[in-house]
């Protein structure tokens, strides 16, 4: 009788171990940060979520179109002009999604007015609260509801700029493909 009781307890313990061990191991792996989740976006998600209205920015494209923006710095050098060119080319490269997106230059209060007058794209006036979230020389994707979705930090070389533009284009295509808004 004692031998049967021991065998039954071992079976019960083995059964509990089979079901509990995977959960315990999963908790351990996640708590120790041994697992790297698969992230496919190239830009940085803007968290906590901000929208243009809450930041005090008037949005003429509210409810209509996605916006692919570039935050114009105080002084626009050749690298800045190159980024604006890549912004235009990214819009052209969207193909069938092109009519859903408008490229805009986000002009701050310190931006050079002479440079602003020469730019061929639509302008959107931003304030200091916006530039605290998205800095100069950065790209930003804004959805039709005015939510800031992703930002692409400043890069330091032309080679990195090309890679960043490709990543921005890939992210924007995914967003447009999955979005039912705009």
TrEMBL record:
This is Cytochrome oxidase biogenesis cluster protein. It comes from Vibrio marinisediminis. The lineage of its organism: Bacteria, Pseudomonadati, Pseudomonadota, Gammaproteobacteria, Vibrionales.
């Amino acid at each position: 009788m004692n031998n049967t009781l021991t065998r039954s307890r071992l079976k019960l313990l083995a059964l509990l171990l089979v079901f509990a061990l995977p959960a315990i191991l999963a908790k351990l792996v996640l708590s120790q940060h041994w697992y790297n989740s698969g992230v496919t976006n190239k830009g940085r998600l803007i968290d906590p979520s901000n929208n243009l209205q809450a930041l005090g920015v008037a949005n003429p494209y509210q409810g209509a179109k996605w916006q692919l923006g570039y935050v114009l710095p105080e002084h626009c050098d050749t690298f800045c002009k190159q980024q604006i060119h890549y912004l235009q080319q990214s819009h052209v490269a969207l193909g069938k999604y092109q009519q859903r997106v408008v490229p805009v230059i986000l002009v701050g209060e310190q931006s050079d007015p002479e440079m602003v007058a020469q730019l061929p794209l639509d302008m959107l006036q931003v304030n200091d609260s916006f530039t605290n979230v998205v800095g100069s020389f950065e790209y930003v994707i804004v959805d039709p509801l005015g939510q800031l979705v992703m930002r692409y930090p400043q890069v330091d070389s032309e080679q990195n700029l090309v890679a960043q533009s490709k990543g921005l284009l890939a992210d924007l295509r995914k967003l447009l493909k999955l979005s039912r808004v705009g």
